[in-house]
Amino acid sequence: LIEGKPEVGKEEGNMEEKKKPEPDPTSPIKYYSLPTLWKIVQDEASGSQAIVDLALSAIKDILINNNCSEPRYPYLMMCIDNIDKHKSIPQSIALAYSIIGWYIEQKAFGVQKISTMHKKVSTETDSQYSNLNPKIPVSIIDIILNDFPHYFAIVSSKYSRNGEIGDTIFVGKYKNSITIDYRLRFLELIINNGPAEFKLGKERLRKLWDMFVTNCKIESDTLLFLKWLSTEKESQGKSIPTQIFTPEENEELFSILCKSHAILGDHFGLLYFKCFSKYFKMINIQKGNIANFYLKMIVKNYKGLVGIEELWENAIYRTEETSKRKFGELIVDIYLSGSENSGTKKNDIWNIFLDKCMEGVIANEIGKEEAKIESYIKLLLLFVDTLDGKKYIQPEEPTNTYVYLYPVQVIKQPEGIANKLEISHNITIGQLRKKIADFFEIPFLGFQLIYKKNIIGEEENDSLFKEFGWGNNVYAQTLATPASESPKLILAQNEKYIKC
To answer: Using CA atoms, how far apart are residues 486 and 295, in angstroms rounded to an integer?
Structure first.
């Protein structure tokens, strides 16, 4: 297929007459399989989705082969043309995604090809999008965004009720959830790999939000959109938020999120929290208020935190318990994650939290707002439990058989004091921390857990501890905590807390 062998039944003499044919992607001569495969993957073809997937896989294999350079770019533009004409969208996106991915791997050459694609699209489609902001060049992003309303209109004409429609096929051969997912992932690829002048921008970002949230009548589509916004990727065992937008676009999106808790309601509670938490941290890292949150969140500037008031509102006023607790845990983590360079002592930071909770209790006591009072008291309890390590302690799994205890050698640093702890096979990292804290009589948050030269972060407290035996030492590196910053002392000195 790739080397240009003639079709079966064709005379080779006829091929020799055309020694250097023009690169025509629809030519049945050099790339005789591609036109047939291209027809098979179109919506109007009669093949099933399984047949379409096979044909699509074959086209990808041919076009990303290093020996098949001539038709690669023309077929990419054919995909973009399909998207512009609202034809065979998932198939066209899947193929374009593969080709652009191949270009990205080619470094400088690929970047130039992607830039050429953007500029060609901008030049040829400018007149079709004359209603857009003239200061923003037309790009593939506009073609993708323009396709969403067209698709949603078809869905609305065929489906009049709200609800779950992920498995329904409205257009072509692919179910709704796949068509939405493909469009969003392709949009992300274009945003992250296009020239600087072809970025999403605040105007298009608001348009995207309105289509999927403000004006969307189908909950499953909003869920897919929020999942896309809150996407994280795994890196060295850590969950790291994916960077989709520019810093300015992040700020715009976070501003929209802060105003949208009422629109999204409790139905999207947990996904809303994931989006809020991701962009809250991103924005404050951008502004230097938070550092190194991928491993452990460290707050450097409490006074400058963006979105802290909205965070408090979500922790107090939400009615859906799961997301409400998540917002509460984030607030508690913030007030317990101060840096030595933040300019504020730990006891002052903790007292700010305690005072705000108590002021909320007292203010709502007058109006007998029991739900709000309960919310503030739950935050106080969560704060104290976190200080004491109880937040991370889950009951060990019951077993009907004899529980064998495994030895673990724990070495307290910097003193070098070694002691043996016996633990069960189903103990979590958090439970191990608590046992170490109790054994050495040190605060739960007063030491770092180190194993095999790696610091075990607090985000791993719910994970099982799987390494046992004398050969595997666990180190408890105590942190320098002045006596004046002892958690119990700070709580004991806070008059409002004592009153509560």
So the answer is: 24
Task: Report the interhelical angle of 269-286 vs 308-317 (nearest 10°).
Answer: 160
386: its two tokens: 């976190």
Over residues 16-34, the mean pLDDT reads 54
Cis geometry, peptide bond prior to residue 247 (ω within 30 degrees of 0) = no
* Interatomic CA distance for residues 65 and 92, integer angstroms: 18
Q: Indicate the average pLDDT of the chain.
A: 77
Tokens of 260: 């949208």
CA separation for the pair 346, 51 (Å, rounded): 63
Highest-scoring range by mean pLDDT, 281-295, 297-311, 460-474: 297-311
CA distance 212 to 229: 11
In three-state secondary structure terms, 114 is: helix
496 within 8 A of 355, measured Cβ to Cβ:
yes
Q: Which amino acid appears at position 91 of this protein?
A: Q
- Judge whether 135 and 94 are in contact, CB under 8 Å: no
Please, are residues 171 and 43 in contact by the beta-carbon 8 Å criterion? yes
Measured CA to CA, the distance from residue 260 to residue 480 in angstroms comes to 42
> Within 10 A of 123 (CB to CB), how many other CB atoms are there?
11
Q: Which two tokens stand for residue 224?
A: 């897919």
Nearest to 221 by CA among 286, 144, 168: 168
Q: How far apart, in whole angstroms, are the C-alpha atoms of residue 272 and residue 278?
A: 10
What are residue 69's phi and psi, to 5 degrees? Answer: -85, -35
Cβ atoms of residues 376 and 360 within 8 Å: yes
Torsion of CA 167, 223, 285, 297, to 10 degrees: -90
Find residue 469's DSSP bridge partners: 408
> 424: helix, coil or strand?
coil
Nearest to 102 by CA among 51, 79, 68: 68
CA distance 183 to 186: 5
- Tens digit of each residue's pLDDT (9 = 90 or more) over 154-195: 888 877 555 557 578 888 888 888 999 999 999 999 888 877
Pairing of strands 469-478, 447-451: antiparallel
